[in-house]
Amino acid sequence: MRKRPVRSGGSRSGLPRRKTADKVRPRGGGPPLDERPSDVASLVELATTLGSGEDPAEALDGALRVVIRELQVARGALFVRSPDGVGWALRASRALPPGAPSTLSCAPPPGDLAALGWGDEAHDRHGLVLLAPIRRRGRPIALLGLGPRKGGRPFGPDEQAFLRGVAACTAAPIENDLLQDELRRVRRHLSAKAFELLSLLDVSRDLAVDSAEESIQRFIVTSVMGHFVVSRCGLYLFGPRGLALAHGRGLKHASAPVPVDDARAALEGLAAPVPVAALAEPLRRRLQEARFVLAVPLVAGGPVEGILAVGERASGMAFSDEDREVALALARHALGALDAALGAQLVRASGEPDVYEFTHALIRHTLYADQSPSRQVRLHRRLAEELASRGLAFEPFADLRDVIDGLERLLAASA
Q1: One domain, residues 77 and 45
Q2: Residue 250 and residue 383 share a domain
Q3: Whose CA is closest to 312, among 339, 277, 347, 345?
Q4: Is residue 1 a part of any domain in this protein?
Q5: Edge-to-edge strand order for the sheet containing 139-146?
Q6: CA–CA dist 175, 177 (Å, integer)
Q7: Phi and psi for 58 in degrees, rounded to 5?
Q8: What is the tens place of the pLDDT at every residue in 35-58?
């Protein structure tokens, strides 16, 4: 039986002998990889290391060792895109100068390779002389930096082609690691959100059970301290003498109330938590003397009724945007619970709702209670709705609604 001839430059299957090498052929050209066996072996080792299933940090460190050994450079570093998308974070390094920072803020080079010199951040701070961007789908995701070669040799065409092959081999694994990091951050964020929602649900349920104003004040202060792990917390409410401490924990002594006009000026327009240092005097000084760092307004669509002052965390960590959102939600729950408690007190104080008893209770709580005018109006409205829901509608009740509407108009005009 006649044997089929073998084509020149191929195999029995007809496939080119260079196909395996062509898979890692650098786009920038250069000598064929099968003419540089050491480069092919190093790239295969590099791909094997990245795909070994080891810890991503160890795999990148191993890949960097391969590149340093093959090119015989003094040092090397691999930076990946920071989570915030601004700058680069050091992921793996070898023999960097002492005190070299773990970040890099330079823009990625426009080409495949960029020589560095004096005045370049990576050269001056990390001792690198060459920077190779690693791109995935045209987007730079990492930077490979290398120090000078042994003996001062240059990076010739062979070395440049090898680095292009390194960038092609490492792009997909690095992108996968970045995606995994992003998924972990999202998972942690969602877990924290779930914990915050459960905490708010527990607080709302517990606040709805108790109708004693003092108990509500204690509970909200304790809840804030437990949730944020802080050493002190204070609930300040407006009263006849100004903004005064209603309940606090972790304080050595209660400071004197802040005059109404000064406190109103400091809290005017405040709708979200702010650092205590951002408040105006004398409120800022009073809160800083008590070692508070965050002021959370108690507001429900009108003027600020008070503040929830929070001390620094035991861990020293700053309050994030999510923390401030939770603190503001807790403050709103506290204000609603306090209003409901005072409304219940008014209903109980009215007893049999004849004209004299009801009017006496209304005037007493309006003129002598430590409440701001806007809060008094809101309490009156709640009281009217509560009495109406119980079927206690009588002739003077319509007059009360007229009084409430007049108070609201007066408050709006004075504002």
Answers
A1: yes
A2: no
A3: 277
A4: no
A5: 103-104, 88-94, 76-81, 139-146, 130-136, 114-115
A6: 5
A7: -65, -40
A8: 466 778 888 888 888 877 778 888
Q: Are 105 and 87 in contact (CB under 8 A)?
A: yes
* pTM over the 0.70 mark: no
| Max intra-chain CA distance, the chain | 124
E-strand stretches of 147-260? 233-239, 242-249
Q: How many residues does the chain have?
A: 415
Bin 151: left if φ > 0, else alpha if -120 < ψ < 50, else beta.
left
Instruction: Say which residue the tokens 């503040």 belong to.
Output: 307
Reported as a single tens digit per residue, the pLDDT across 133-187 is 999 988 999 999 999 999 999 999 999 999 999 999 999 999 998 888 888 887 7
Model pLDDT for residues 60-91, shown as the tens digit of each residue: 888 999 999 999 999 999 999 988 778 899 99
For 73, the 3-state DSSP assignment is: strand
Number of domains forming the structure of the chain: 3
Distance set, CA 24 to CA 11, 63, 410 (Å): 20, 16, 80
What is the three-class DSSP state of 104? strand
Mention every residue, 6+ apart, whose C-beta is less than 8 A from residue 355.
396
Tell me, rounded to whole angstroms, the distance of Cα 71 from its chain centroid: 41
Contact 128, 116 (CB under 8 A): yes
For residue 261, give the nearest of 277, 242, 279, 280 by alpha carbon. 242
Query: In one letter, which amino acid is 68?
Result: I
CATH number of the domain where residue 222 is located: 3.30.450.40
Same domain, 131 and 254: no
Those residues with Cβ within 8 angstroms of residue 371's Cβ, 6 or more apart along the chain or in another chain: 238, 239, 342, 365, 379
The SS3 assignment for 186 reads helix
Q: Are 249 and 225 in contact (CB under 8 A)?
A: yes
Q: Is 252 exposed, middle or buried (0-12, 13-18, 19+ CB in 10 A)?
A: exposed
The closest of 290, 296, 294, 297 to 319, measured between CA atoms, is: 294
Q: Rounded mean pLDDT of 257-274?
A: 87
d(CA 108, CA 114): 9
- Which single residue is written with the structure tokens 């050595």? 252
Radius of gyration of the chain (CA): 35
**305 SS3 class:** coil
What residues are paired with 235 via a beta bridge? Answer: 247, 308
